[in-house]
Amino acid sequence: METYKNVYSNGDVIVTYEPSRCIHAEACAKGLSSVFKTSVIPWIDLDGASTKKIISQVKKCPSGALACSTVRTKEFVKDFVI
Ligand code: SF4
User: Between the CA of residue 20 and those of 4, 43, 71, 75, 81, what are the distances in Å?
Assistant: First the structure.
């Protein structure tokens, strides 16, 4: 998994995180702790669960700090994260 500041991808999905919107409710860490960590950096590890589970958990973020989109090509990932 390649990791860039607040942008994460496993090749199938791109997850973004906006710290200023996070209300630290920890819904993500409690709901899918294998992906969303509270004490490890990088704190999002997209290798920790299936893409389907990751998308489902991101949609439960109460503040909108987490967002995601699916990836169509590796080139899109490269263009997106630079
Ligand atoms: S679920 Fe959203 S608001 Fe809650 S801690 Fe995670 S990123 Fe922040």
Answer: 17, 16, 25, 28, 19
Predicted confidence (pLDDT) per residue in 2-60, tens digit: 445 689 999 999 999 999 999 988 999 999 999 999 887 778 999 999 999 999 999 99
Q: What is the CATH number of the domain that holds 63?
A: 3.30.70.20
Domain that holds residue 42: 2-73
The tally of domains found in the chain comes to 1
Q: Which two tokens stand for residue 76?
A: 């899109």
Q: Is the pTM of this model over 0.90?
A: no
Instruction: Please tell me the distance between residue 15's alpha carbon and the centre of ligand 1 in angstroms.
Output: 13
d(CA 45, CA 51): 11
Cα of 30 vs centre of ligand 1, distance in Å, is 10
DSSP letter (8 states) at residue 34: T
